[in-house]
Design goal:
This protein has 282 residues and is α+β, with helices and mostly antiparallel strands. It contains 7 helices and 12 strands. The protein has 2 domains: 166 residues, no CATH class; 99 residues, no CATH class. A hairpin with a 4-residue loop joins strand 5 and strand 6. Helix 1 crosses helix 3.
Length: 282
């Protein structure tokens, strides 16, 4: 068996995965743009603090047993470098993975080598999914594109905060999103980025005319998190906005913010400071 090349990914369980030529973007669901992968990667590496050293598209072998829960990869690495893997799933979802294991070895001549291992979590089928569909998915196999990023000039414990900031900034830039206070309405929710507002001027300071504030969760933004509220009807036959119109009128707002590169404390402090400055009753 030929020796492994440095900084080249390989599957730990080679019998369960095969390297394929077609990237998952070609198999992605309708509406996901294949070019987004390259644009996104270019955005997070353009500063020069991260560089791509290898990229592989892998597909799990068809099987009738349960689908794998992780894709385990390993690579012979520079012992003094820090690495991360960016994994893109068929759905278009991206996850970043740090090494779960690092092995360092030294030879009699003082040469040090290292092997790093990455464990990429894989989407699992829903328990509510029909058994026939679960079996079909197992027979088709899963496709993942894994790209190794090398951290240039940074310590390992600084790698993930650096990448989180770079990645989140890139995603928002590609989607045309901006942080800040937004107005939420059925019409606004049809656009990727809601209308920006000055909360001190838009919100009511009258305690009898309260305001409604939305703060979205991790890996999302206001438009994506609440778009269904514009069209989904409840048991009364009314949409969310139609039901709340008598109470809040057009005083429904959202606070759009980064969720990965900003801690919960910083997000809450930012929002609370803006609310306090405008003395906004919510």
């Amino acid at each position: 068996m030929p020796p492994h090349k440095r900084e080249e990914l390989r599957a730990v369980h080679g019998d369960a995965w095969e390297v394929v030529d077609a990237p998952p973007s070609k198999r992605m669901r309708r509406g996901v743009q294949p070019v987004a992968d390259d644009a996104f990667l270019s955005e997070i590496t353009k500063s020069g603090r991260l560089t791509t050293v290898d990229s592989k598209t892998l597909r799990s072998q068809p099987r009738r047993a349960a689908a794998p829960s992780t894709l385990d990869l390993e690579m012979d690495a520079d012992p003094d470098a820090a690495y991360l893997v960016m994994a893109r799933h068929e759905s278009g979802a991206i996850v970043f993975v740090q090494p779960t294991q690092t092995e360092r070895r030294s030879t009699a001549r003082g040469v040090t080598s290292s092997t790093v291992r990455f464990s990429i979590p894989l989407p699992q089928t829903s328990a509510a999914e029909a058994p026939e569909e679960q079996q079909r998915r197992s027979l088709v196999g899963k496709v993942v594109k894994a790209t190794v990023l090398k951290v240039v000039g940074k310590l390992a414990d600084m790698a993930m905060p650096l990448l989180a900031k770079a990645a989140e900034t890139a995603v928002w830039k590609l989607k045309g999103l901006h942080e800040g206070w937004k107005s939420v309405s059925p019409d606004n929710l049809q656009t990727p980025d809601l209308s920006a507002i000055d909360i001190a001027k838009a919100a009511s300071t009258d305690a009898s005319r309260r305001n409604l504030l939305f703060i979205h969760g991790t890996f999302s933004h206001a438009s994506s998190a609440y778009s269904a509220l514009a069209t989904t009807r409840g048991s009364s036959g009314k949409t969310f906005f139609e039901s709340l119109q008598p109470i809040y009128g057009n005083r429904i707002f959202a606070f759009d913010h980064f969720t990965v590169s900003r801690t919960s404390g910083r997000k809450c402090a930012h929002a609370a400071g803006c609310i306090a400055q405008g003395a906004v009753p919510l």
